[in-house]
Specification:
The chain is 38% helix and 25% strand. It contains 9 helices and 17 strands. An 8-stranded mixed β-sheet has the order 3-9-2-1-12-16-17-15, sandwiched between helices. Helix 2 packs across helix 3 (78-103).
C-alpha cells in the first residue's frame, strides 16, 4: 500500500558527499547522512542515487594491478567494477543513514538495490569513448590495452589512461523493485554510479564496457518514479551564470526554457554543471509539475524551504 503522506523525492549525491578514498568515504557519508535524515524528519521518502567515479576507478586499478602481480587472477571488466562500487558505496551510505535515523528514533528501513541499466549497443558513445578511468600506464601497457580492443588516451607528461564509453540509459531493469519499496515509504539506494550498464540479449544480460553518467540516470530515475522533486547535491551552493569570473551570478530560480537558453549560450561546463541541468530538463519534461533543486548537501534542508540553492521548474 502506497504511503501517500510522504513526499517522494530522488536525491542524487555527488563526489563531495562520498569522498575519494575509503577513509574519506567513511567520514563523508556520516556528514551526508545528517542532511538526509533531516529530509526524512521533514516527511520525505528518499530514493538515493550516487556518483562512483573515484570508487570505480580505485576498484579498476586494484583489480588490474592484482592481475599484473598474480597472473592467475583475471582483471575485472568494467561492469563488474561498477557492481563492486555499488555495493561498497551503498554499504556505507545505508549503514550511516540507518544509524543516524535510529539516533533520532526513526526506524524507517534503508535498502541498497544492485541496479542494472540497459544501454544501446549501437549508441554513438561506444565509437568515441571519453570517460577516463584507472591508473596511468606506460606506452607498452597502453599498446597492450589497444591490442585487447580497448581505447586509451595520452596525457602529456603523465602517461596513458584507458577511456570507456558513456552511453545513454534506456531502462532501469530493477525499477519495479525500487518503486515497490519507495511506494511503501522505505528509503532506497539504487542506480549507484549510473547503474551497471548491460546489453539485453534475448533472455540474458551482457555487461557493457562502459559507464553511465550519474546525472543522466538521476533524471531518468526521478521521472520513472514520478517523484515530486529531484535534489541534485553537488559541490556548489547554486547554479551560476559566468561561473568563475568576476561577473559570476548565482541563479535562485529558473525554468526549463531559461535553462535551455543558458545552455545555448554555453553557460554551463560540459563535465560539471551541464549534465545536471540536462538531468533537470529530462525530469521536468516528463513530470512538469515537479521541481529540481541544485545545491550542496549542507544547504539542502534550507533549499527545500526555498531559502538556498537553485530551483528549476517547468
Amino acid at each position: 500500500m502506497e504511503d501517500s503522506k510522504l513526499k517522494k523525492v530522488v536525491v542524487a549525491l555527488g563526489h563531495n558527499a562520498l569522498g575519494y578514498t575509503t577513509t574519506e568515504q567513511w567520514n563523508a557519508v556520516r556528514i551526508t547522512a545528517k542532511s538526509l535524515a533531516d529530509l526524512v524528519e521533514s516527511g520525505y521518502q528518499l530514493t538515493i542515487t550516487h556518483s562512483n567515479g573515484p570508487q570505480v576507478s580505485m576498484i579498476h586499478k586494484a583489480m588490474t594491478e592484482l592481475h599484473r602481480i598474480y597472473i592467475d587472477y583475471s582483471p575485472a571488466p568494467m561492469c563488474v567494477c561498477s557492481a563492486m562500487s555499488q555495493g561498497y558505496a551503498g554499504f556505507d551510505i545505508q549503514n550511516a543513514l540507518k544509524a543516524e535515523l535510529l539516533l533520532r528514533g526513526i526506524s524507517t528501513p534503508v535498502s541498497t538495490i544492485l541496479t542494472q541499466v540497459s544501454v544501446d549497443p549501437y549508441d554513438e558513445a561506444f565509437y568515441a569513448p571519453t570517460k577516463k578511468i584507472g591508473r596511468y600506464m606506460s606506452k607498452e601497457d597502453a599498446d597492450n590495452e589497444v591490442k585487447k580492443g580497448n581505447y586509451v588516451v595520452e596525457e602529456p607528461g603523465r602517461g596513458w589512461l584507458r577511456v570507456v564509453a558513456t552511453p545513454k540509459p534506456l531502462e532501469i531493469l530493477e525499477m519495479d523493485s525500487i518503486r515497490l519499496l519507495a511506494d511503501h515509504g522505505q528509503i532506497v539506494i539504487c542506480c549507484g554510479g549510473g547503474g551497471i550498464p548491460v546489453i539485453v540479449q534475448d533472455n540474458a544480460l551482457q555487461g557493457a564496457s562502459a559507464v553511465i553518467e550519474k546525472d543522466d540516470i538521476a533524471g531518468k530515475l526521478a521521472s520513472d518514479l514520478g517523484a515530486e522533486e529531484l535534489l541534485i547535491l553537488t559541490s556548489v551552493p547554486n547554479v551560476c551564470l559566468n561561473f568563475g569570473t568576476e561577473n559570476q551570478k548565482p541563479l535562485e530560480r529558473i525554468n526549463v526554457e531559461e535553462a535551455k537558453r543558458h545552455i545555448a549560450e554555453g553557460q554551463f561546463g560540459e563535465t560539471n554543471m551541464l549534465p545536471k541541468i540536462n538531468a533537470a530538463i529530462t525530469f521536468l519534461e516528463k513530470v512538469p509539475q515537479g521541481r529540481v533543486i541544485i545545491t550542496t548537501a549542507d544547504k539542502v534542508t534550507e533549499a527545500v524551504k526555498g531559502k538556498a540553492g537553485t530551483v528549476i521548474t517547468a
